[in-house]
Amino acid sequence: MVVQTAKYGGREVFVGAPSDVPSVNFVSPFAALVTASSQEEVDEVLGIVSRLLGLGCKEFCCVGSKAESLHDQLDLLIEKAGLFDVVTTWHEDAIEGCEYFLFGAGGQSLALYGLISRHPELLDAMVLASQSD
C-alpha cells in the first residue's frame, strides 16, 4: 500500500486509512488525525492505538460526531500505559479539527499522518484550512 502524500499549509501530510497502519513506515515521532464518525470507526481506532503508540505517535487528533468519546477512551488507554507525553484533542467540526491538525499538532515538529482516506470531505477540509493560512 502506498500512502498518499500531500502538502497543506506548508506541512507534508501522509494520508491513508487505519487498515494501512501495518504497511506504513512511520516517521517518528508523529501526530495522527483519526476519524470518529461512527462507533465502527471508534472501534477501528481503538484496535490500532497500541500499535500507533508503539510506532511513536505523540498526538491523536480525533474528528467527527463521536470524537469526544474516542478522545476520552484514548486518554484512559494512554494513562494506563503511563505515556503521559501523548496528547489527545477532539473536534466535531471537520474544518476546525483539520485546521488544528495542520497548524497546531505537534507544535510543527511532528510528522503528520491523516488516517482519513475514507473521508474525502476531510481532505477538502484540509485544503480549506490551509487556504486560511
Detailed description of the structure:
The protein has helices at residues 39-55, 67-80, 94-103, 120-131, and strands at 4-8, 11-16, 30-35, 57-63, 87-91, 111-115. It has 133 residues and is an alpha/beta fold. α1 (39-55) packs parallel to α2. The relative contact order is 0.24. The mean pLDDT is 87.
- The gross shape turns out to be globular
Main sheet specs: 6 strands, mixed
The stretches of 5 or more residues where confidence is low (pLDDT under 50) are none
Range of strand content: 25-35%
Q: Output the strand order for the largest sheet.
A: 1-2-6-3-4-5
Straight-line N-to-C gap: 31 Å
Describe the SSE topology:
Layout: E1 4-8, E2 11-16, E3 30-35, H1 39-55, E4 57-63, H2 67-80, E5 87-91, H3 94-103, E6 111-115, H4 120-131
Parallel strand pairs: 2-6, 3-4, 3-6, 4-5
Antiparallel strand pairs: 1-2
Short structural description:
This protein has 133 residues and is of the alpha/beta class. 40% of the residues lie in helices and 26% in strands.
Which terms would index this structure?
133 residues, alpha/beta, six-stranded mixed β-sheet, 4 helices, 40% helix
